[in-house]
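Note to self: the last two entries modelled the partners one at a time, which told us nothing about the interface. This time every component goes in together.
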Amino acid sequence: MIIRTEGLGRDFLVGPRLRRRRVSAVADVTLDVAPGEAVGFLGPNGAGKSTTIKMLTGVLVPSAGRAQVCGLDPVRERRALARRIGVVFGQRSQLWWDLPLAESFALHGAIHRVPAPRHRERLDECVELLDMAGFLDTPVRQLSLGQRMRGEVTAALLHSPELLVLDEPTIGLDLASKERLRTFLSAVNARGEVTLLLTTHDLPDVERLCRRVVVIDRGRVLVDDELATLRRRFAGNRTLVVELAEPAPPLLGLPGVVDVAVEAQGLRQRLAFTGNAADLIAAVARRAPVRDVGVDEPSIEDLVRTLYTRPARA
Amino acid sequence: MAEVRRGIYPRIVASRIRGQLAYPVSFALDVLAQFIGQCVELVVIVVVFTQVTSLGGFDQREVVLMYGLAATAFGLADLAVGQINELPEYIRSGELDVLLLRPLGALPQLLSADVSLKRLGRVAAGLAVLGWSLAGAGITWTPVRVLLAVTAPAVGAVILGAIWVAANTVSFWLVDGREVASSVTYGSNFATSYPITIYGPWLRRILCFAVPGAFVAYFPALALLGRADPLGLPSALQWSSPLVALVAVAGAALVWRTGVRHYQGTGS
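The predicted structure of the combined assembly is written out below.
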């Protein structure tokens, strides 16, 4: 296991001095992540995602439970751990503001004692895949957010970490930048060298990158499962949208259909169904002249909304 | 490979310095301003001595010697450790997290995050005053005193630096520790520049034994001048600044470690 936590918890003291209260940010997080996995770590704001990440990276001392990352104790062996993991915070920069990107990379490589040939190889690869050649000599403060995030991810990967932790890496990025970053991260993870742990509010990130999803709320793990399983369990049915050549009465009684919604005077019908889409399409075609069909997958938005609104178990 | 083996801090510091030298005129003016700023305080001493012949039992040359030692030590400490004043900001903004995610100590990273070379102006002013007073204070030079004169500013800087680090560490507990920390930083500059005999007994005790400011300039100056302490403190104290510096560094390191452990982050 590259990450192993047991009953991890963290309290904060908040409020004015005389009325300090103890607030639990993370109550009980038990989590095992195997090398090579890509885990989406989801939860509403204040669920305890960032706090958990900070405990996993040695920034925060847990107030309860245990954590082991890369076989190390994150707080006691913080520096040794820092050599073996990469961390990207979407809202915080690890680059040097006033240095050109290339110099920031050089300094970062030196801090991690990356041998020069390896540094060059790794950097060349990232520069090509992330299309950074055009702004390597630009000071970091002059980069656009999308350019900077590509730089952040590169910096976090230069020392070939075993684990890459990304805290909202796509926040604020435009669609094209998001897509580029996802493609890159998915390629990096697919080679099996880097384990990904990703927090995000951007669900397409999860759909593109993660096979496994851990949802936490109020500091506890609500769900920890394969994305595909979750979809089946929580997100409800797929929907077959059929466009008919001429209006027809609602297509009731077809195999696997659990609900029918009729639009445009019967020209378009939405059939929520379970089971095989091809069989259903064939069955619909026998009943009415079909002009076009489409299948709507249940969205992970729906899934997460369902999960968040369920009451937390005590 | 040589590039990799070279120490990382020289590289970080070099990268900071390059930025500052990019605008040479502005840099030169900054240095000059710092130089003049430090000299203004000297003028205060000179003006006081137009009215009195001795201050706390010391004549003008002797007081200026203490001032020169204190100013040089302050300048060196400010150059090396001055960045510690930014700790409250690093904590508030969460920037400290970034330092903790690197495989280096958080304190050395913080101190090297910005080396403000303009502070060399203060060092230069201190050295000029120190050189002048050493030459004219009627010191009986022995090899040990030469060694003391050369090392005293650096030792004093270490003591001041340790005090500042310890004082700024309160930011880990107080949301706005900046006030406390800067009063210690600039208070220490003032308190070390004069003979401790001018202060009341309580402040004297604090400067000797709690916040060891008396070991920055006062005691080394007595040793250089070959004077007994007017307050009757043992003469061994006059030579113990290096030892005090070691203790202060150990104490500051302990306080810092405790502070980092206490660090809660900004929660975002």
